[in-house]
Here is the input.
Amino acid sequence: MNFFRKYKIYLKLATCLFQFNSYADFNNELPTNLNLQENKETHSNTHNPSNTVRKKYENDKKEKINTEKGTKLPSENSDLAKHNVNAPVYFKGNSAEGSRKTGILNLLGNVEIIQDDTTLTSDKAQLFGSTGTTFGSGSRSIQKAIAIGNVHINKKSSLNSPEMKATANTIEFLVPQKIMILKGKAKVWKAQEYVNAEYIEMNLETGDIKLKEPHGTVDPKSSANLNKNNEKKSSSKVTK
Here is the structure.
């Protein structure tokens, strides 16, 4: 009986050792292939949570970059939208009168106001800041500018956009709103295009332009086609 008991014990021990060795050598006996690599990565990520967090962060970052690249504003190619509305405002004139209480500065004679690549000239202008404060040329605290008399705007040309000019009796520049309003015989030129209206509102951020009481616009392509048609009609009459 003792012999059989010892035999059973040895048999159980041998079975356990066989199972243990089989499990321990399982990964070593398999060939290195794609499935094994994926299992190893999953196993390592399970034991190292920082790897999982790092991969999630990298994936989220890639998705964010792709979203930013794929998302573009419709006004991205607008000449007006390229104006840096956050640039400081520089100004000068023959004389200046200001009030700290009202935050208003009056410029008289040969007024010149410059922001980024856009220059405004006029006979006189009013600059509005915050009440109780003063500001000088190059300030970023100007809230509004109103130019009156012989007002002209010139936006310099660049590699991707032509020069733009504008005139009006009065021009109001709302700096925080990034809006420029031309009132009274307002005209805008860009390359060979021309717009004429009593009221022109330009959004310097989006590039949108609103017209009120337009007197007419000139499109060089349409006018050129009209001239060609008129020439054809006149030549056909002469032939007959």
